[in-house]
Specification:
By secondary structure, the chain is of the alpha+beta class. The chain contains five helices and seven strands, in the order αααβαββββαββ. α1 crosses α3 and α1 runs parallel beside α5.
Amino acid sequence: MTRTDVAEYWADIERWLLIHAPAAIPLLPPGASATVMDAAENRLGFALPYEVRDFLAVHDGSGGLWLHDRGEFMSLDSILSSWNLDFDLWGDGNNDEWANPHGPIKKHWFNRKWLPIVDARTGDYVCVDLDPPVGGEEGQLIAWYHDGGPRDVLASSFGGLLNEFVTELAGGRYAFKLDRAGVPYLDYTRP
């Protein structure tokens, strides 16, 4: 994946929203600056994957909008806050005996190199796995549950998840809806 692909994914998402959910467009935040992302990397102690960095440079998350089937794309602040909270709670090694991952994911309850990127608003996340075991891929996306720890590999990369998302948008798998408070969201239809 090239760096321009991530911006193209955002352009595809915005084109779809413009046609099917124009009320959502003004809610998308501006991008995060390089300075802010550099500071985040210093705090994390590792570099953000370039796909995540490029994604956040276009829009710093989805502005609280539930766009993806698994939740809302997180802002850099919410990524850092969630990462910090979960690492403070679970650290490297706390509750590892309860972890039961399926597929090539380390048997940890939480790992400092798992970076939340999609928030289901329940304490469950899609995380970028920057510390996979042998057989896994650095940058793979994993499902992490507050009451079950890591579960499954969802995609080989953040770009892979975005590609699938854009393909499903174009294929009619998502519909624009309003919640009870009138906030727009995208509803996913399972095949």
